[in-house]
Amino acid sequence: MKKINFSAGPAILPASVLEEAADAVRDLNNSGLSILEISHRSKAFSQVLLETESLVRELMGVGEEYAVLFLSGGASTQFFYTAMNLLNPEETAGFLDTGAWSAKAIKETKLFGKVNVLASSKESNYDHIPRSYTIPEGLKYLHVTSNNTIFGTQIHEWPETSTPLVADMSSDIFSRRIPLEKFGIIYAGAQKNLGPAGVTLVIVKKDLLGTVERALPSMLDYRVHIKGASTYNTPPVYPIYVMMLTLRWIKEQGGLEAMEKHNEKKAKLLYDEIDRNPKFKGTVSDKESRSLMNVTFVCTDEADTERFQKEATEAGCDGVKGHRSVGGFRASIYNSMPYEGVETLVNVMKDF
Ligand code: PMP
Questions:
Q1: 125 CA from centroid of ligand 1 (Å)
Q2: Among 140, 192, 205, 321, which one carries the catalytic annotation?
Q3: 235-281: per-residue pLDDT in tens?
């Protein structure tokens, strides 16, 4: 039986993408070669790169002032990469500390410059997105984690500032429309909304680069990858190919506006049940901070936890277990989670 995959990442992908990805492993477009064995400088792969970039640009409305890069190292590498490329030692980056991933980005950034944490929800185990804080003048950039995968919170109101935002969008990229002009850098590991693990999408405003004094190793210099059009070294060919298929799928569904509606509808179904059913409660204290991607909840009576887990698993719902730092349950309902998948989980909750 095909399971309904509620895993936080690597995560569910559209069934049609998996089929096409499997076909390409056997034979890429009747070329007689597998996608796994073609050169990253072949014509076939150059076309894949071009189409993937052009889909990113089209779906998000990314203009030529930004470069679109496909790098490796995961979002965790971008925690320090952004700082290395943007921040001189005496300069300050602002941060919203909204979860474990923000905290890691803060730690890494301190290796290269000054950090000013403008607001943090750490004291209450990151159960909300802080909303009252002031943004001082003179920050080089303001780093935000748009969606906190572990704690189930999401930024729904972007900071009001002309300071460029650097955003870790690993767990909600392409899930909704965003005001792109506010962002200096957007980065995301692919393994939630975009494809398999192994590629990191980076969208970087070109005029922010070239202001740091430190010498940068080639692989850690955005400008080198811009110049090499993401083929300075061997890029993750297969993950990029699957990203292309996923972006095609998003486009077929109607783009980001359609994704946004689909995600709102799914999240509402699940949150309504959490709020209605006395057997469950949400872990996010501020409803306005609730994530549309990772829905976190617990059993009101902790003694019920194991039984609910068992019943969800029996109904085919895989990966609903919460992160160890929050406990309870987390249902990750990324773009490619169908409405019917969430309905199945909600029915288990109703029967419970
Ligand atoms: N940021 C967020 C919001 C995440 O959910 C994760 C986990 N995938 C990371 C960063 C770390 O990503 P990676 O494993 O690709 O380094």
A1: 18
A2: 192
A3: 999 999 999 999 999 999 999 999 999 999 999 999 999 999 999 99
Q: Return contacts of 112-118, CB within 8 angstroms, 24+ apart.
A: 112/80, 112/83, 112/84, 112/87, 112/214, 113/83, 113/87, 113/88, 113/89, 113/140, 114/87, 114/89, 114/90, 116/92, 118/94, 118/142
207 among annotated binding-site residues? no
Question: Which residue segments constitute the domains of the chain, with CATH numbers given?
Answer: 15-252 (3.40.640.10), 255-351 (3.90.1150.10)
* Atom 14 (ligand 1) nearest CA: 74
Report the distance separating Cα 156 and Cα 6, nearest Å.
22
Q: Is the dihedral of CA 209, 213, 218, 220 positive or negative?
A: negative
Determine the residue of 72, 81, 101, 332 to mutate for testing ligand 1's pocket, defined as the one with the most ligand atoms within 8 A of the Cβ atom: 101
Indicate whether residue 42 lines ligand 1 (CB < 6 A).
no
Q: b vs e for 181-202, b when ≥16 Cβ sit within 10 Å of the residue's Cβ?
A: ebbbbbbbbbbbbbbbebbbbb
Ligand 1: centre distance to CA 101 (Å) = 7
- pTM for this model (two decimals): 0.98
| Contact in structure between 295 and 274 (CB atoms under 8 Å) | yes
- Reply yes or no on whether 168 is catalytic: yes
For CA atoms 93, 99, 105, 110, give the dihedral sign. positive
